[in-house]
Amino acid sequence: MTTAENSMDPRQFRRALGNFASGVTIVTACGPDGHKVGVTANSFNSVSLEPPLILWSLDKRSSAWEVFQAASHFTVNLLASDQIALSNHFARPQEDKFAGIEYASGLGDSPVFDGCAGNFQCSHFQHIDGGDHWIMIGKVERYEDHGRAPLVYHQGGYAMVLPHPRGRKPEDSETSQAGDLLNTRLGDNLFYLMIQAVNACHPRFVQENLKLDLRNSEARLLLVLDSAPNASLAELQQAAAMPAQEVEEALVALQERGYLQSVEQRHQVTAAGHAKLEALWSTVNKAQDDIFGALSEGELEVLKKALRLGMASR
Questions:
Q1: CATH architecture assignment, domain 20-154
Q2: N or C: which end of the chain has fewer CB within 10 A?
Q3: Of the candidates 39, 64, 52, 23, the residue with the CA atom closest to the CA atom of residue 125
Q4: What is the CA radius of gyration of the chain?
Q5: What does the pLDDT look like over 59-106, one tens digit per residue?
Q6: What Pfam families does the annotation carry (predicted)?
Q7: Which 3 state secondary structure label does DSSP give 214?
C-alpha cells in the first residue's frame, strides 16, 4: 500500500486519484478584449444549491489563467460520450484552440458547444488558492440539460456510463424475469446485447489486470504496442481511447518497469515486456474461451465481423 508517509510522488499520486471516475468538461471564457480560452478539465463538481454554485480547478501554470481571472463569466461544457476528439483538442496547447470549432456565445461571450450533455454558464463568484491550482467557484446563472450520455474519465482512459448490475443478489423470481428479457423484442436487439455483454465482462478484466500489477491503461497500451510496435502517439491515443497526456504517462510507467524502451521516438516492447504480454494474453484468451467456448470457429468469425461493423460506424 502506498501512503502519504512513505511516498508522495506527484505522478503516482495523480494515478491514485485516477481511481475516482469523473466526467469530462471543457471550461471556456472570453476576456474583456475578446480573447477566448478553453481548457479540458475533469475537476468539475457541485458546491451549493442555494445559491447555485459549482467549482473546477485550473493549473496555475496555464496561460488561460489571466483570461479566466478577468472574465465576468465562464461556461462549463459537460462533454457527451461521442466528444472525445473535442476533449483531446482542448487538452493540447495551441495558439488558437477555437479555429475551425463551431460554438455559440453564452453569458459573457463564453463559448458554448453543441452536442454536449449539458452546460453551466456561471458568473465569477470566487477563486481560491489551492496549492498548484486555482479553485474557481462560479454562480450558475443559466444551464442547459440535454440528457446525452456523458463522457467519463477513469484510470487514465475515457469510458462510458453503463447500467450497473444489481448491488444485491436477486431473488429467484427476479432472475427469471431478467432472463426472460432475452426472449423479448429488447433481448433481440443487438445494441442491448452488446451493452449488457460489455457490462458483464468488463469487471473481470479489471481484476485480471490488477493481478498482473497493471492498470487498465497500461494493459491496454501494452496490447496495442504488441500489435502496432511503430504506432505514433496519435495512433496510440486513438487505438487505446486515452488522452495524449495519459498515453504518455502510461508509456513512462511501462518504461520504468522495463516493459518498454524508446528507440528513435518509437516504443518497443522489451523481453520483460513480452513476458508480461504472455501473461496478459493468457488471461485474455482464457476469458475468451470461458465466455465464447461454446461457439464454433465459424460462429466466432461471424461475431467478430459483426463487432467490426459496429466499430466502423464511428
A1: Roll (2.30)
A2: N
A3: 52
A4: 22
A5: 999 999 999 999 999 999 999 988 999 999 999 888 889 999 999 999
A6: Flavin_Reduct
A7: coil
